[in-house]
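Record 1 of the preview.
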Amino acid sequence: MSAGRWSVRAQWGTTLWLTAVWVLLWGDLSVANVLVGLLLGYLVTHGLRMTPIDFHGRLRPLGLAHLVGRFLLDLVRASFEVSMVALRPRHVPRGAVIGVQLRSHSDLYLTMTAELCSLVPGSLVVEAHRVTGVLYLHVLDVEQSGGIEAARQVVLDQEARVLRAFASDEELAEAGLSTRGGLRGGTAPGPDRTTSTEVRA
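->
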Protein backbone atom coordinates (compact mmCIF):
# COMPACT_ATOMS: atom_id res chain seq x y z
CA MET A 1 0.00 0.00 0.00
CA SER A 2 1.40 3.40 -0.98
CA ALA A 3 2.04 6.09 1.62
CA GLY A 4 -0.65 8.29 0.06
CA ARG A 5 -3.35 5.64 0.23
CA TRP A 6 -2.37 4.78 3.83
CA SER A 7 -2.57 8.48 4.78
CA VAL A 8 -6.08 8.78 3.32
CA ARG A 9 -7.26 5.63 5.09
CA ALA A 10 -5.73 6.81 8.37
CA GLN A 11 -7.48 10.19 8.07
CA TRP A 12 -10.87 8.60 7.47
CA GLY A 13 -10.25 6.16 10.31
CA THR A 14 -9.53 9.11 12.60
CA THR A 15 -12.68 10.86 11.32
CA LEU A 16 -14.82 7.85 12.18
CA TRP A 17 -13.18 7.54 15.59
CA LEU A 18 -13.83 11.21 16.36
CA THR A 19 -17.43 10.77 15.21
CA ALA A 20 -17.89 7.86 17.61
CA VAL A 21 -16.42 9.90 20.47
CA TRP A 22 -18.73 12.82 19.59
CA VAL A 23 -21.83 10.60 19.66
CA LEU A 24 -20.78 8.98 22.95
CA LEU A 25 -20.15 12.35 24.57
CA TRP A 26 -23.59 13.62 23.56
CA GLY A 27 -25.29 10.30 24.30
CA ASP A 28 -27.58 10.72 21.29
CA LEU A 29 -27.39 8.19 18.45
CA SER A 30 -29.32 10.12 15.84
CA VAL A 31 -28.75 10.79 12.16
CA ALA A 32 -28.25 14.52 12.80
CA ASN A 33 -25.75 13.92 15.60
CA VAL A 34 -23.77 11.42 13.52
CA LEU A 35 -23.67 13.84 10.57
CA VAL A 36 -22.45 16.65 12.81
CA GLY A 37 -19.79 14.33 14.23
CA LEU A 38 -18.65 13.36 10.74
CA LEU A 39 -18.47 17.00 9.70
CA LEU A 40 -16.47 18.01 12.76
CA GLY A 41 -14.20 14.97 12.42
CA TYR A 42 -13.57 15.82 8.76
CA LEU A 43 -12.77 19.45 9.58
CA VAL A 44 -10.38 18.42 12.36
CA THR A 45 -8.51 15.80 10.33
CA HIS A 46 -8.40 17.70 7.03
CA GLY A 47 -8.45 21.33 8.17
CA LEU A 48 -5.95 21.31 11.03
CA ARG A 49 -2.27 20.62 10.58
CA MET A 50 -1.53 17.83 13.03
CA THR A 51 1.66 15.93 13.71
CA PRO A 52 1.35 12.49 12.09
CA ILE A 53 1.21 9.53 14.45
CA ASP A 54 3.11 6.44 13.39
CA PHE A 55 1.07 3.26 13.56
CA HIS A 56 3.13 0.07 13.55
CA GLY A 57 0.45 -2.29 14.81
CA ARG A 58 -2.32 -4.26 13.16
CA LEU A 59 -6.05 -4.57 13.65
CA ARG A 60 -7.04 -7.67 15.64
CA PRO A 61 -10.78 -8.34 15.14
CA LEU A 62 -11.19 -10.49 18.27
CA GLY A 63 -9.29 -7.99 20.39
CA LEU A 64 -11.36 -5.12 18.96
CA ALA A 65 -14.60 -6.98 19.65
CA HIS A 66 -13.49 -7.57 23.24
CA LEU A 67 -12.48 -3.91 23.61
CA VAL A 68 -15.83 -2.61 22.36
CA GLY A 69 -17.91 -5.16 24.27
CA ARG A 70 -16.11 -4.56 27.56
CA PHE A 71 -16.30 -0.78 27.08
CA LEU A 72 -20.08 -0.93 26.61
CA LEU A 73 -20.40 -3.16 29.68
CA ASP A 74 -18.24 -0.78 31.75
CA LEU A 75 -20.32 2.15 30.49
CA VAL A 76 -23.57 0.62 31.78
CA ARG A 77 -22.05 -0.61 35.06
CA ALA A 78 -20.30 2.69 35.84
CA SER A 79 -23.42 4.72 35.01
CA PHE A 80 -25.38 2.65 37.53
CA GLU A 81 -22.66 3.01 40.18
CA VAL A 82 -22.44 6.79 39.74
CA SER A 83 -26.21 7.09 40.01
CA MET A 84 -26.09 5.10 43.26
CA VAL A 85 -23.46 7.49 44.64
CA ALA A 86 -25.67 10.46 43.77
CA LEU A 87 -28.76 8.89 45.35
CA ARG A 88 -27.20 7.69 48.61
CA PRO A 89 -28.27 10.06 51.41
CA ARG A 90 -25.53 11.70 53.50
CA HIS A 91 -22.83 9.88 51.54
CA VAL A 92 -19.74 11.97 50.78
CA PRO A 93 -17.68 10.42 47.94
CA ARG A 94 -14.00 10.00 48.73
CA GLY A 95 -12.38 11.22 45.56
CA ALA A 96 -8.75 11.00 44.57
CA VAL A 97 -6.38 11.93 41.77
CA ILE A 98 -4.20 9.00 40.79
CA GLY A 99 -1.24 8.76 38.44
CA VAL A 100 -0.90 5.58 36.41
CA GLN A 101 2.26 4.62 34.50
CA LEU A 102 1.16 2.99 31.24
CA ARG A 103 3.12 0.15 29.66
CA SER A 104 3.25 1.68 26.17
CA HIS A 105 4.67 5.11 25.32
CA SER A 106 2.86 5.31 21.98
CA ASP A 107 0.92 8.56 21.58
CA LEU A 108 -1.84 6.68 19.78
CA TYR A 109 -2.40 4.04 22.46
CA LEU A 110 -2.05 6.62 25.25
CA THR A 111 -4.73 8.79 23.62
CA MET A 112 -7.10 5.88 23.04
CA THR A 113 -6.69 4.68 26.63
CA ALA A 114 -7.25 8.19 27.99
CA GLU A 115 -10.36 8.71 25.87
CA LEU A 116 -11.93 5.39 26.85
CA CYS A 117 -11.21 5.97 30.55
CA SER A 118 -12.73 9.47 30.40
CA LEU A 119 -15.86 8.26 28.63
CA VAL A 120 -16.65 5.82 31.44
CA PRO A 121 -18.56 7.68 34.21
CA GLY A 122 -16.77 7.99 37.52
CA SER A 123 -13.29 8.76 36.18
CA LEU A 124 -11.81 11.63 34.21
CA VAL A 125 -8.33 12.08 32.78
CA VAL A 126 -7.03 15.45 33.98
CA GLU A 127 -3.54 15.25 32.50
CA ALA A 128 -1.48 13.01 30.22
CA HIS A 129 2.31 13.09 29.92
CA ARG A 130 3.47 12.02 26.46
CA VAL A 131 7.14 11.64 27.39
CA THR A 132 6.66 9.58 30.54
CA GLY A 133 3.45 7.82 29.50
CA VAL A 134 1.68 8.69 32.75
CA LEU A 135 -2.07 9.35 32.96
CA TYR A 136 -3.49 11.36 35.84
CA LEU A 137 -7.15 10.63 36.54
CA HIS A 138 -9.71 11.92 38.98
CA VAL A 139 -11.71 9.05 40.51
CA LEU A 140 -15.12 10.05 41.85
CA ASP A 141 -15.33 7.55 44.71
CA VAL A 142 -12.25 5.52 45.61
CA GLU A 143 -14.10 3.32 48.10
CA GLN A 144 -16.68 2.27 45.53
CA SER A 145 -13.89 1.62 43.03
CA GLY A 146 -12.26 -0.81 45.45
CA GLY A 147 -9.35 1.41 46.47
CA ILE A 148 -6.44 3.15 44.77
CA GLU A 149 -4.84 -0.02 43.43
CA ALA A 150 -8.12 -1.31 42.03
CA ALA A 151 -8.75 2.01 40.26
CA ARG A 152 -5.22 1.90 38.88
CA GLN A 153 -5.69 -1.65 37.64
CA VAL A 154 -8.84 -0.62 35.76
CA VAL A 155 -6.74 1.81 33.70
CA LEU A 156 -4.04 -0.78 33.04
CA ASP A 157 -6.67 -3.32 31.99
CA GLN A 158 -8.16 -0.76 29.61
CA GLU A 159 -4.74 -0.15 28.09
CA ALA A 160 -4.18 -3.89 27.74
CA ARG A 161 -7.42 -4.26 25.78
CA VAL A 162 -6.41 -1.38 23.51
CA LEU A 163 -3.03 -2.97 22.86
CA ARG A 164 -4.53 -6.40 22.19
CA ALA A 165 -6.88 -4.77 19.67
CA PHE A 166 -4.33 -2.71 17.73
CA ALA A 167 -0.72 -3.39 18.73
CA SER A 168 1.80 -5.50 16.84
CA ASP A 169 3.37 -8.62 18.35
CA GLU A 170 6.54 -6.62 19.04
CA GLU A 171 4.61 -3.86 20.82
CA LEU A 172 2.74 -6.42 22.91
CA ALA A 173 6.00 -8.07 23.88
CA GLU A 174 7.54 -4.73 24.87
CA ALA A 175 4.50 -4.03 27.06
CA GLY A 176 4.79 -7.43 28.72
CA LEU A 177 1.57 -8.74 27.18
CA SER A 178 0.86 -11.85 25.16
CA THR A 179 -1.51 -12.00 22.20
CA ARG A 180 -3.67 -14.54 24.06
CA GLY A 181 -4.07 -12.49 27.23
CA GLY A 182 -2.17 -12.42 30.45
CA LEU A 183 0.46 -10.01 31.70
CA ARG A 184 4.03 -11.01 32.38
CA GLY A 185 5.29 -9.41 35.54
CA GLY A 186 1.84 -8.35 36.81
CA THR A 187 2.51 -4.60 36.94
CA ALA A 188 3.61 -1.84 34.68
CA PRO A 189 7.37 -1.26 34.45
CA GLY A 190 9.19 1.58 36.12
CA PRO A 191 10.07 2.54 39.70
CA ASP A 192 7.23 5.07 40.10
CA ARG A 193 4.25 3.17 38.77
CA THR A 194 1.49 4.89 40.71
CA THR A 195 1.08 8.07 42.64
CA SER A 196 -2.10 9.30 44.23
CA THR A 197 -3.35 12.46 45.86
CA GLU A 198 -6.54 12.18 47.83
CA VAL A 199 -8.95 15.07 47.57
CA ARG A 200 -12.24 15.52 49.30
CA ALA A 201 -15.16 15.68 46.87
